[in-house]
């Protein structure tokens, strides 16, 4: 058996992995920010007066949700230049992750908005509030706490999907571990450490999301 | 586009077949793992519970890609060398199985308390109670979430291309690499994945849901 | 009747606060209101009663523009509510017109519909600040005064989930009044309440009738209350006004067969 864990080697590669962890967090964070905003726009876009728009959005999102993210990353990265848009790996990756997860988040928002009782909309109308104020001040503040668990799960989901960015050369954790492996021919430590880092970050995040959900509900008096 | 399909249609079909095989085998692994771990988490024996929980948390807490690389590149260092095809569906199946375990656990717990008590009152053995009374009812509850999970599983199989399994994703990447017909290569692959999900998996799951519901006399 | 046949405005000597003119409402083939004609005068309190499914709640919801209408025109203070003038004729109103006209109408609902994420005071201040553009200080003064009137000032910082049904409904009344409407609509405001708290809500409405110059339209199942405070009772049956009269006349000497049946049935139930 060739299993020999080398702590020296671990300490040697630790700084590189730490830097890569920051990149991974940055990628997950910016991908999530895009997905949060785009997802909201896509959810609201399905609630306009134009049924055709709703239909087109719904089918498109269904397509995005049913196809592999890794393929979407390739598609955006390689097809972009063909239509005259050359994207850096980072930008292409963020766009793919943001788009992919916005399809999921739009569903989370949609369910949240639909959980707000009809009477709330009617009360807003009776108070003569604008549609914008109705959403911003009454509906979304009630929909978001409903959506928090789903939103949190997809934050963890995005974080765990960032290794796919390595396929177009974004220097996040996986890419760094691959590089270390091919330089030193040692795979045990880098791949295992990557796993441990993911575990160490995603488990507490999941716990934090549950905590946030409880706090938010209490604060909103619900 | 037509030329593209004529030239590369055969290779794409081969890749799709490999994706189909990966999907089928990974589904089998996922179902077994989910059932074992889901029941394990409800076990009265703490070592069983601990083992099941460890499996679920590790596979849900890390990335499929990390698991795939670890199983393919690191396991050999422990003396377990798997061919890439096997490593592929095994990783995908184990990953999805961890999520499936939570579905299994949740649906068993949502079988009404009265059913457990009724089986107990008939002095059924725990094993018989689970097999004859609880699982059939839980099965109906878990089908809809499994439908979504199987779509995730199909998408997950695309990653096996990264360890060299010649699936649909792999073929698309190859064609892209040799011809730079990126839009056609990746676009065709995207459409095929979409069709597999929406024309095969989703309707099949719907049919299964309906027939299960009928067998339980609920439809 | 063609839309062009409706006046763009009612003449100055014939301007009730509310006029339903040939108003029809249907859902598919189900006709909920059939050719409704009803005037409500300035400062009048009209109670709408009738069996369920008679269309009485729809009358209020159309007036609040929560429901569109299929035919006819509703006028508020002589001006069309559901329609607006364009090139000399009436056309269905756009959102801007509805917003302008809706400003003079307030409504209280059966299930209160308070905003759960806001305190009682915040609920009352929301409209004045966001819609009327009042300063926070002005809105607070106005809201606190109204909460005082409905007897809820000591609970002003509570969220709705901490209030009883009767308390929530009183806050809802204050919230509607904070918009200074000229017309108030009460849609079965006591129907969802426990019997022992109905009195605290009817008491507030009683005081509104006595002390304010509001035009009010109320759908209710409480005959005694309706009789006490209304200027007129409107009995709806199958989408039409079957009978309307002053309360004394209506309850002591109903003219129509269906009214008599309904009143007997209600009395038996009590």
Radius of gyration of chain A: 21 Å
Q: Are there runs of chain A of 5+ residues with pLDDT below 50, and where?
A: none
What coarse outline of chain A follows from CA principal-axis ratios?
flat
User: How many separate domains make up the residues of chain A?
Assistant: 1
Strand-residue fraction of chain B? under 5%
Q: Which CATH architecture of chain A would you pick?
A: Orthogonal Bundle
The CATH topology assignment of chain B is MetI-like fold
CATH class of chain B: Mainly Alpha
- The CATH architecture assignment of chain B turns out to be Orthogonal Bundle
Described by strand count, sense and barrel closure, the largest sheet of chain B is: none
| Biggest protein-protein contact in the assembly | A-B, 39 and 39 residues
Distance between the termini of chain A: 58 Å
In CATH terms, the superfamily of chain A is MetI-like
Structural class call of chain A reads mainly alpha
CATH class of chain A: Mainly Alpha
The major pleated sheet of chain A works out as: none
Q: Which percent range fits the helix content of chain A?
A: over 70%
- What would you give as the CATH superfamily of chain B? MetI-like
Protein model, in words:
The complex is a heterotrimer of chains A (222), B (219) and C (270). By secondary structure, chain A is mainly α. Chain A has helices at residues 7-45, 51-66, 69-82, 89-114, 118-126, 131-161, 173-184, 188-219. Chain A has one domain (7-219): Orthogonal Bundle (MetI-like fold), CATH 1.10.3720.10. Chain A is flat, with a radius of gyration of 21 Å. Chain B has one domain: MetI-like (MetI-like fold). Helix content of chain B is 82%, strand content 0%. Chain B has eight helices and no strands. In chain B, helix 1 (2-40) runs antiparallel to helix 2. Chain B is flat and about 70 Å long. Chain B starts with a helix and ends with a helix. By secondary structure, chain C is α/β, with parallel strands linked by helices. Chain C has a single domain (3-104, 181-269), classed as P-loop containing nucleotide triphosphate hydrolases (Rossmann fold, 3-Layer(aba) Sandwich). Chain C is built from nine helices and twelve strands. Chain C has helices at residues 56-63, 95-102, 120-130, 136-149, 165-177, 195-211, 223-229, 247-252, 257-269, and strands at residues 18-27, 30-40, 45-49, 71-76, 79-80, 83-86, 89-92, 105-108, 183-187, 215-219, 232-237, 240-245. Chain C has a six-stranded mixed sheet, sandwiched between helices. The longest helix of chain C has 17 residues, at 195-211. The mean pLDDT of chain C is 93. Classes of the chains: A mainly alpha (222), B mainly alpha (219), C alpha/beta (270). Chains in contact: A-B, A-C. At the A-B interface, helix 2, helix 3, helix 7 and helix 8 of A face helix 2, helix 3, helix 6, helix 7 and helix 8 of B. Chain C: It is a peripheral membrane protein. Chain C: One of its GO terms (molecular function) is ATP hydrolysis activity. Chain C: Residues 18-263 form the ABC transporter domain. Chain C: Pfam families: ABC_tran. Chain C: This is Amino-acid ABC transporter ATP-binding protein y4tH.
